[in-house]
Design a protein that fits this description.
The protein is α+β, with helices and mostly antiparallel strands. It has 2 helices and 3 strands. About 30% of the residues lie in helices and about 40% in strands. The protein starts with a strand and ends with a helix.
């Protein structure tokens, strides 16, 4: 089965965080992306790419105090 990685950015209670999520071609994307607090969802070609994007976002959130 083929997998794709998503880099997801969430806002909850005025705070932001990001994480990577693996999805397969059989997954329902609506269910994966149905969080009300979802701000951004980026498709990445690899786990490494998703992790780099998530780390950059989380570093920026910490630097901005959010």
């Amino acid at each position: 089965m083929k997998y794709t990685w998503l880099a997801l950015q969430i806002e909850e209670n005025g705070k932001f965080y990001a994480y990577a999520s693996r999805v397969s071609t059989a997954d329902n994307l609506v269910s994966k992306l149905s969080r009300r607090s979802l701000v951004t969802a980026n498709i990445c070609t690899s786990k490494k790419e998703a992790a780099a994007l998530v780390n950059a976002w989380n570093t920026a959130h910490k630097a901005n105090g959010k």
